[in-house]
Specification:
315 residues, alpha/beta, Rossmann fold, globular
Length: 315
C-alpha cells in the first residue's frame, strides 16, 4: 500500500501538471517543465556542505557539461570514491540542473564524490547520443583521476530510471572495450527494456495507468522520442536487460519501488545478475512510487539514500 506522504505528493503533482497544461501543449516541453517543477517543489532541505565544479569535456560531437560534487568537509588532498551519475527522465526530460539538489544530497550523505553528466537529450538527439556522451565522460573520468582527486579503483556508476539503463550500458561497454572497470553499479528503479511489450511485465499492467507519476504511455513516449524507427530495441546499449555476458558487470545495488511499472524488470535483472555470479544487493520500498528518491520531503526517500550510503561505504 502506498504511504500517506507519497499519496499526498502524487496528488499535489497532478495539480502542478494541470497548471502547466494550461499554457503548454508540446509533450516534450510539458515533460521538461513538469520535471523541473517537481524537483523544485519536493526537494526538501538543500544540502549546502557540498562544493561543485563544472567541466566542459571534449567529445567528437561537442563539449559535454559534467558537474563534479565534493563534500567540502573532505580534505582537498584526499582521494575518494567517484560515482558517475546519469539522470533519469526517459532520455528526454531532466537535466544536470534539475537534478542538482538530489545529487548534492547524495554527495553530502554518502561521502562519495559525484560526476553528473548533462548528456544530449531526445528527441532533438536520438540514440546513441545520450549513451555516447555518458561513455565519453566515463572514459574522461578514468583518464583524469589525478585531476579529479579520485581513486581509479573506486569509480562507480549510478542512474535512476532511464539513467540506470545508461549506467548499466556504459559499465558493460567499458568492460568490453577498455582496460578500465567500473567497480560498482547503483540502479534506482531501473528502466531496462524498451521493447514496448508492456504485457511482458505484470507491474507495467498493475501500475502503468499513469497514477504513479510514470505510466505505460510515458514509457512508450520515451522510447519513441529516444529511438529511430530502425533502431533495435533488443540492442543491449538500448535495453540492458539483453546484455548477454552479465558476468562482466560489477557488484550491483538495485533499489525498487512498490508502485512502479518498471518494478518487474528491476527484479528480473537482479535475478539474472545473481545467476551470472554477480554480487547483487536489492532493497524494495513497497510504499513508494517510480522516481521517488529525489523528493527529500518523503521519509522513504531519506531511507533510500541511507541504503545507498551503506552500499557505497562497502565498495
Amino acid at each position: 500500500m502506498i504511504d500517506r506522504q507519497c499519496a499526498n505528493l502524487l496528488k499535489n503533482a497532478q495539480s502542478i501538471l494541470a497548471k502547466i497544461l494550461v499554457s503548454e501543449n508540446d509533450p516534450v516541453v510539458i515533460g521538461r517543465k513538469y520535471t523541473v517543477a517537481l524537483m523544485e517543489t519536493f526537494l526538501g532541505a538543500r544540502a549546502n556542505d557540498v562544493d561543485t565544479r563544472d567541466f566542459r569535456i571534449p567529445a567528437d560531437s561537442a563539449e559535454i557539461l559534467a558537474r563534479l560534487y565534493r563534500g567540502n568537509h573532505n580534505p582537498a588532498d584526499s582521494k575518494r570514491k567517484l560515482v558517475l551519475f546519469f539522470h533519469g527522465g526517459g532520455w528526454s526530460v531532466g537535466d544536470i540542473d534539475s537534478y542538482d539538489g538530489f545529487v548534492r544530497r547524495l554527495c553530502a550523505e554518502t561521502g562519495a564524490q559525484y560526476l553528473s553528466v548533462d548528456f544530449r537529450r531526445a528527441p532533438e538527439h536520438k540514440f546513441p547520443a545520450a549513451h555516447d556522451d555518458c561513455y565519453d565522460v566515463a572514459l574522461w573520468a578514468f583518464e583524469n583521476c589525478e585531476t579529479l582527486g579520485i581513486d581509479p579503483t573506486r569509480i562507480g556508476a549510478m542512474g535512476d530510471s532511464a539513467g540506470a539503463a545508461l549506467a548499466t550500458a556504459v559499465s558493460w561497454q567499458i568492460a568490453r572495450q577498455t582496460t578500465y572497470r567500473v567497480n560498482s553499479l547503483y540502479l534506482l528503479y531501473p528502466f531496462l527494456d524498451l521493447r514496448d511489450d508492456h504485457e511482458a511485465y505484470a507491474s507495467r499492467v498493475s501500475f502503468g495507468d499513469g497514477n504513479y507519476l510514470v505510466g505505460r504511455a510515458g514509457l512508450s513516449a520515451a522510447k519513441q522520442w529516444y529511438l529511430n524507427e530502425d533502431t533495435s530495441t533488443e540492442d543491449p546499449l538500448v535495453s540492458p536487460i539483453f546484455i548477454p555476458d552479465l558476468e562482466s558487470l560489477p557488484p550491483t545495488t538495485i533499489i525498487t519501488a512498490g508502485h512502479d511499472p518498471n518494478l518487474d524488470e528491476g527484479k528480473l535483472f537482479a535475478e539474472r545478475l545473481q545467476q551470472s555470479g554477480v554480487r547483487v544487493s536489492t532493497t524494495h520500498f513497497a510504499s513508494a512510487f517510480h522516481g521517488f528518491m529525489p523528493f527529500g520531503v518523503l521519509d522513504v526517500a531519506a531511507e533510500s539514500v541511507q541504503t545507498l550510503a551503506k552500499a557505497i561505504a562497502e565498495q
